[in-house]
Structure formats: structure tokens, C-alpha cells
Amino acid sequence: MGGSAWVTLATNDSYSLGALVLAHSLKQTGTVHQLAVLVTPGVTSAMREKLSSVFNLVQEVNILDSRDEANLRLLKRPELGITFTKLHCWRLTQFDKCVFLDADTLVLKNSDELFEREELSAAPDVGWPDCFNSGVFVYRPSLETYDKLIQFALEKGSFDGGDQGLLNLFFSDWAHKDISKHLPFIYNLCSTACYSYLPAFKQFGANAKIIHFIGAQKPWLQYFNTETKKVQPSGESSHLQEVLQLWWNIFCSLIHPHLSPAMQGQSQH
Ligand code: UDP
Ligand code: MN
């Protein structure tokens, strides 16, 4: 294959809906890069088929793979399961450079320039800005780095039980060493910023290139009125009406019509 790819991850059919919308958003912004998704056995074959209609690569990864000794040892640390799964992205060595995107992100504007950045480039986390948020990061696939990350996970673990705590410990000089590895916040605009710093969101929100729906309120869990075709976010998500609508517009026009009735049930709330 060669070249460069956007990479995401889905361990079940719900997150796969996010991955599908994300892939279409990338295509709509005219990216020249390839699209890859890591899936685990929890993703149904019907959903994999949908994924392969828009992703160039649907790569199965398995956190329970008994042939992998490091995996088995990790199993004794169940909170690291999902961490391990994301780490698989370093194994996509058919690509030279990749940008990982969480399945709950949406690309609003072409962001291909991210591929000019070096590993590990990421945007600050809203909760602790000396940590990077691991929902969007630029990296270079490498089996050597993958092995080091697994070894590190076994020895040091993750301070938050997730991939972000692990990656921040591993790439520990991110906060102070090289400002070019600090992505502007507009490449990972965390949805909580919309209410935690509303004036800044009003001032700069229009510049957002990638929005990240962090937390439990995922776009596919919002109430959607099938008559009016409008999403009706509740409470804290109400500031996100506009961007959530963009997510649902893609979902309604490009994804929902092609899902089987059983799969359509995944997204009805
Ligand atoms: N993920 C997944 N299945 C899960 C949980 C997470 O596939 O059950 C993947 C998915 O790509 C997701 C990413 O891991 O976007 C990180 O999780 P999440 O986005 O829920 O964390 P947050 O951004 O809310 O901290
Ligand atoms: Mn996320």
C-alpha cells in the first residue's frame, strides 16, 4: 500500500458507526491519504462489510490473541485492554506516517497538513494541558516502537487506566521539548470546551478542523428526530447542536440508508 493513512479503532458496532461517519467526513474534506480502521472480534461481519466500503483497510486486531505472550500477560490487567488495542496502530507498517483519530471525532476541514508533523504530535488535553489528548495524534508505524510500548505497558502501566495515561508516560517529553509537536487545539477540539470556556468557543470555534466528542455523550447516543431530521441534544450537549447536526447529516444521508434493519437498531435511541 505505502504512503500515509488516517487510522481509527472500533471494538463494537456502535463505535463502528462513529468510524463510518468519521471516514465519510474525511472523504468529504478531500483527503489524499488512505483510511484504515482497526476492528476487534466484537465488530459483526455485516458491519465490517460496511466499513470496507469506505475504508481502504479493515484490520482485525485481537486483544485476546493467545499466540501473543505479551497480550496474555496484559489480560491480567483488564483496564489496559483498550489501551493495548489502540497500540496496535503502530503495527501498520505498510504506512510511513499515520494520524490516529478516535472513532468519536469528526473532520470538519481538510487537515492533511497534519502528516507533515512528526511523532508524537498531539493537542493538549482540556483536563490537564501538560498532557496531550490521545484522541488525535500523529505517529510513525514501527514494530520496534510497538514492542517498546507493550513492554512499557507491562512494566509501568497507565496512570489513568487508559491509552492516554500510557502514551503520556511513554512520550513524556511532549509537554516541554518541541513545540512543533503541540498541535493547535483546533485539530482536537474537545466538545467539553464548548461549555467550560464558552467565550473562547464562540471566538475560535469556527476555525475548528477536527471536533472530538469526548465523554459519554457520543453523537450516536443523542436523540434524533426522524421526522425533522434534527438532532435534539440535551443539557450540556446543547452547545454542540450545530456540529452534532453535521455528524447526523452524514449519518442520515450516507450511512443509515445502507444499514440492514438490525444494524439500524444500533443507532435508535
Ligand atoms: N473505543 C472502542 N470501543 C469502546 C471504547 C473505545 O472502539 O468500547 C475506541 C474508539 O475508537 C474510541 C476510542 O477507543 O473513540 C477512545 O474511547 P472514547 O472515545 O470513548 O474515549 P474519550 O474520548 O471519551 O475519552
Ligand atoms: Mn474519544
UniProtKB/TrEMBL annotation:
It comes from the Eukaryota. Belongs to the glycosyltransferase 8 family. Glycogenin subfamily. This is glycogenin glucosyltransferase. It comes from Dendroctonus ponderosae. The chain holds residues 1 to 269 of 980 of the full protein.
